[in-house]
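>> received
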Amino acid sequence: MYTIADLERVSGIKSHTIRMWEKRYDLFSPMRTEGNHRLYSDDDFLKLLNISRFVKRGHRISTVAKWSESEMLGRMTELQESFINAEHAEQFFLDEILAGTISYNENRIEQACTKILEKAEFEFLWSAVFLPALQRIGVLWMSKKINPAQEHFLSNFIRRKLEVAIDALPVPSNQKDGIVLFLPSDELHELGLLMCQYLIRKMGVAAIYLGQNVPGINVEKCIKTKKPRAALLFCNYGKISNRSKKFLEQWDSNIDIPLLIAGQPGRLDTAFFKSIDSVKFITKIEDLKTYLVQSKREVLNFDEQ
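>> returned
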C-alpha cells in the first residue's frame, strides 16, 4: 500500500492535486488508516501514472477521467508515439517502466525500451530511464511500500538488457592493459558493475569481469596475474563490509594500480576511500569515458619509451 506522499514522489503529481482529482472525479477509492490517512493500492498507483501521462501531454483531466480503463490503454500507443521526439520523452518512458514493474508487465517495459533505443544509445536508456526507475523503486522497497518481488522483477529485466548489450559488442582483440571489475565480499548488486563492463568494452578496452562477492585475496591474485591498468569497484548505497575494508586499506602497499570507485558510496565509505592514495572516483558515465581515454594515452606513451 502507498501513502499519498509515495504517489507524489513517484508520479510527480502533487498531493493536493491527487486529493482534488479523487474528490472531484472519483478516480480513486483509497483505504483509510485509524488516523484517517489515505492508503492506495497497486491499481490506484497504475491508474495515477496513466492519467498523469495524458494530462502532462495537454489532455484535460475532466476528459481523461471519463475514459474507461480499456479506452485509456487503447490510446496509450498513440500517446507513446507522440512522445518519441518530445523534449522530455524520458519521463514518459520512465513512467511506463514503473507501471510495468508494479504490474509485472514485461511487455510494457520491453515496448518502452524498444522505442527509446530507436532514437537513443544504450547509455541514455541506462542513465535517463533505468537508473531513475531503480532509484524510485528502491525508495519504495526500502520503505516497505512494494513487494520485493517487484524490485527483483525490474532488476532482472535490466540485467538481461545489459547482458544482451554487452554480448552485442566485439571482444577487444588486445587483452592487455584491461580493467578488472569486481564487487567486494558480501556485495551482490551488480547492475552498475555490468554497465561499467558495457562502457569499457564499447571503448575497446578489455574488461576482466569478476562479478559479485569476490574475496579480496582473489582480486589481488587476478591483478598480479593479468597486470591490468586499473581495478574498478562499484559501490551501491550499502555499507562496505569490514572484511572488504581490511583488504582495501592495504591497497596502496600491496597493489600498484589505481582503484576506481564507481557509483554512489555512502558518506562514511567515501571518507574511507579518500584515505587510499590510489583511489579515483567515477561518479558518472563521462568520468569513466574520460579515464579510459586518458589512461590509454598513458599506456601508449609508456610503451613508446
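>> Residues 299-305 have pLDDT under 50 and may be disordered.
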